[in-house]
Amino acid sequence: RIYCSLIINSFSGHYSIDILDYCFRFNIIMIFLPPYSTYLLQLMDVGVFQ
């Protein structure tokens, strides 16, 4: 089996029952970032998108 990961912020619209079911069926592991932590990851964004 091949799994994918999806890294998203903790906005409540991202995790409805339909989305969780879809991710389960297609082997997608959802990784939720803690609230107010995106400023810590900005350096990672810069490194990845250069």
Automatic annotation (TrEMBL):
InterPro entries on file: DDE_SF_endonuclease_dom
Domain DDE-1: 6-50
Top-rank taxon: Eukaryota
Gene Ontology MF, one: nucleic acid binding
Protein name: DDE-1 domain-containing protein
Annotated source species: Cryphonectria parasitica (strain ATCC 38755 / EP155)
